[in-house]
Amino acid sequence: MGRPCGLLFRGLADAALRVFAMSGQVLYFRLGAEIVRRKMGWTEIGESETAQISRVIADNLDATWRRRARARRPAHEKGRPGGSGLKYS
Fold first, then answer.
1. CA torsion 48→51→57→61, rounded to 10°?
2. Which residue in 17, 18, 53, 80 has the most C-beta neighbors within 10 A?
3. Domain for residue 35, yes or no?
Protein backbone atom coordinates (compact mmCIF):
# COMPACT_ATOMS: atom_id res chain seq x y z
CA MET A 1 0.00 0.00 0.00
CA GLY A 2 1.06 3.56 -0.62
CA ARG A 3 1.75 6.16 1.97
CA PRO A 4 -1.08 8.35 3.26
CA CYS A 5 -1.17 11.66 1.42
CA GLY A 6 -0.87 13.68 4.64
CA LEU A 7 -4.60 13.57 5.45
CA LEU A 8 -4.41 12.57 9.09
CA PHE A 9 -8.01 13.10 10.11
CA ARG A 10 -10.83 10.96 8.83
CA GLY A 11 -12.91 14.00 7.91
CA LEU A 12 -10.16 15.28 5.63
CA ALA A 13 -9.68 11.84 4.06
CA ASP A 14 -13.44 11.55 3.47
CA ALA A 15 -13.49 15.00 1.89
CA ALA A 16 -10.58 14.09 -0.39
CA LEU A 17 -12.32 10.86 -1.46
CA ARG A 18 -15.50 12.80 -2.23
CA VAL A 19 -13.52 15.20 -4.42
CA PHE A 20 -11.90 12.26 -6.23
CA ALA A 21 -15.31 10.61 -6.73
CA MET A 22 -16.91 13.76 -8.13
CA SER A 23 -13.87 14.41 -10.32
CA GLY A 24 -14.13 10.83 -11.54
CA GLN A 25 -17.67 11.45 -12.74
CA VAL A 26 -16.59 14.48 -14.73
CA LEU A 27 -13.50 12.68 -16.03
CA TYR A 28 -15.55 9.70 -17.20
CA PHE A 29 -17.71 11.90 -19.38
CA ARG A 30 -14.59 13.53 -20.78
CA LEU A 31 -12.54 10.38 -21.44
CA GLY A 32 -15.48 8.13 -22.27
CA ALA A 33 -17.38 10.64 -24.39
CA GLU A 34 -17.62 8.30 -27.37
CA ILE A 35 -18.96 5.43 -25.24
CA VAL A 36 -21.45 7.72 -23.51
CA ARG A 37 -22.59 9.16 -26.84
CA ARG A 38 -23.13 5.70 -28.33
CA LYS A 39 -24.86 4.22 -25.28
CA MET A 40 -27.15 7.24 -24.96
CA GLY A 41 -28.01 7.15 -28.67
CA TRP A 42 -26.71 10.68 -29.18
CA THR A 43 -25.21 11.77 -32.49
CA GLU A 44 -23.03 14.30 -30.66
CA ILE A 45 -22.42 15.77 -27.25
CA GLY A 46 -23.59 19.31 -27.88
CA GLU A 47 -25.09 21.98 -25.67
CA SER A 48 -28.24 20.01 -24.82
CA GLU A 49 -26.32 16.84 -23.92
CA THR A 50 -23.75 18.80 -21.92
CA ALA A 51 -26.58 20.45 -19.98
CA GLN A 52 -28.06 17.01 -19.17
CA ILE A 53 -24.69 15.69 -18.00
CA SER A 54 -24.07 18.83 -15.92
CA ARG A 55 -27.51 18.55 -14.31
CA VAL A 56 -26.93 14.92 -13.28
CA ILE A 57 -23.49 15.67 -11.81
CA ALA A 58 -24.86 18.73 -9.98
CA ASP A 59 -27.76 16.61 -8.63
CA ASN A 60 -25.25 14.03 -7.35
CA LEU A 61 -23.22 16.74 -5.64
CA ASP A 62 -26.35 18.28 -4.14
CA ALA A 63 -27.51 14.88 -2.83
CA THR A 64 -24.10 14.34 -1.22
CA TRP A 65 -24.23 17.75 0.50
CA ARG A 66 -27.79 17.14 1.75
CA ARG A 67 -26.89 13.68 3.08
CA ARG A 68 -23.84 15.06 4.88
CA ALA A 69 -25.86 17.94 6.35
CA ARG A 70 -28.52 15.50 7.66
CA ALA A 71 -25.85 13.29 9.21
CA ARG A 72 -24.47 16.25 11.15
CA ARG A 73 -27.84 17.38 12.57
CA PRO A 74 -28.49 16.80 16.27
CA ALA A 75 -30.65 13.74 17.00
CA HIS A 76 -33.59 15.88 18.21
CA GLU A 77 -33.77 17.57 14.77
CA LYS A 78 -33.70 14.39 12.66
CA GLY A 79 -37.53 14.26 12.34
CA ARG A 80 -37.80 17.77 10.93
CA PRO A 81 -37.95 18.43 7.18
CA GLY A 82 -34.76 17.21 5.60
CA GLY A 83 -34.19 14.86 8.55
CA SER A 84 -34.60 11.11 8.82
CA GLY A 85 -38.28 11.19 7.83
CA LEU A 86 -39.50 10.27 11.30
CA LYS A 87 -42.57 12.21 12.39
CA TYR A 88 -43.45 13.35 15.87
CA SER A 89 -46.97 13.38 17.26
1. -160
2. 53
3. yes
